[in-house]
Design a protein that fits this description.
The longest helix is centred in the middle third of the chain and has 27 residues, at 120-146. The model has no long low-confidence stretch (mean pLDDT 94). The protein is mostly helical. The N and C termini lie far apart (49 Å). It has helices spanning 10-14, 20-27, 34-44, 51-56, 74-80, 85-98, 107-110, 120-146, 153-174, 177-184; strands at residues 191-194, 197-200. The protein has one domain. The relative contact order is 0.10. It has ten helices and two strands. Helix content is 55%, strand content 4%.
Length: 203
Amino acid sequence: MLNSDKHVIKIVERNVNIDYSFVFKHVFDKFIDKFSRDVMYRIILEILPVNFLMFKYNISKSYKCVYCNEVETLRHLFFECTFNSQLLVLIKNWIFALSNGIICLDFKNIVFQDIEISNQKIKSVIVLIISLYCKTVWLNRNVNKFEKKHVNSNIVYLNFLSQLKLRILADFERLPMIKFIEYWCNNDLFCNVKNEILNVTFY
């Protein structure tokens, strides 16, 4: 059935106006790490187990967000919850700058339905930042819910920044210098390289 050309997955049937070939092209961008890709894949298929979904299937007793009293949907958790607003503002500003004012981040961008950037390397960085943001929010949400550890918005913010810094440091070691500069040294937004010495500017 899966190999059949006639088989259509449910999410595509529900949203006939969305070009999922475009969406999944970004999900499987090689610049995204495997863990972030897994989270994004579940978000886009609308199967990430947020409380609203778990309540709907009688798995959870509550549909409320772990941080507030609103309904914990995908849109709420990753785009509307005030708990994540500080980090989301930072990401919005970065993506606006990277896209030269083309992308003013909304939920469609977060689920990869609308990322129109001609520069493929800049697009990969944007996709990575969105994926890393979603993974960070999801992991910290689960720490709060299942491990009952206190997580505040500052912890989520700093956790995201430290993960991004580690990724940039790893890319600096693994990529040829020209490629690294093309990906990361855009107007010194994240870092710059002088005399082959890396200076991270955002942390």
